[in-house]
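hey so i finally got around to running the thing on that chain from the lab meeting. sorry it took forever, my laptop kept dying and i had to restart like 3 times. anyway pasting the input first so we r on the same page abt which one it is
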Amino acid sequence: NTYPNLIDQYEIYNHYTEDEGIISYVNSDRPDLLAIATHGRSGWTRMFTGSITESIVANGDFPVLSLSLT
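ok and heres what got predicted. didnt touch it at all, straight out
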């Protein structure tokens, strides 16, 4: 691996919701940047399913790079 500190995937096995788990992990490990993908949903779909990326950006106190998959 060219970048030994790069985490390709991190699975959360605890009582947190997805966004809480990611924020908790980032706060404990303190990487320079969190890069996270988003589906770019809007309208009714987003209103009912929410946005994990939006929650992380709003509630985290670390730099986030949000990349759209669409």
